UniProtKB/TrEMBL annotation:
GO BP terms: lipid A biosynthetic process
Organism: Hoeflea prorocentri
Designated name of the protein: Lipid-A-disaccharide synthase N-terminal domain-containing protein
One Gene Ontology molecular-function label: lipid-A-disaccharide synthase activity
Keyword line: Membrane, Transmembrane, Transmembrane helix
Amino acid sequence: MTEIFASLINWFDAVFIQQFDTWVLIGFLAQACFTMRFVVQWIASERAKRSVVPVAFWFFSLFGGGMLFIYAIQRQDPVFIAGQGMGLIIYIRNLWLIANERKAAMAQTD
């Protein structure tokens, strides 16, 4: 059992301590921003007592996803690059649709 525990400690040290650098810090900050989108969506839904996707969700998605995309490029991870790259297209498109909807609503009130 102590051998397993020692192996786990060695793995933790190799993964989280030895390779810690500025890019890992950026990656963690990016992940925190990306996670905030779910927190924002959850709070908005709880307040409305129904499922809501606020605009802030898409901005956190874009900002966090963009940072994670840069991190993935720096780490040269093709799976992560493809996943975040496709997500960025979706986030931008949703923000574009929201902006068009707001423009149309403003035009109707004039």
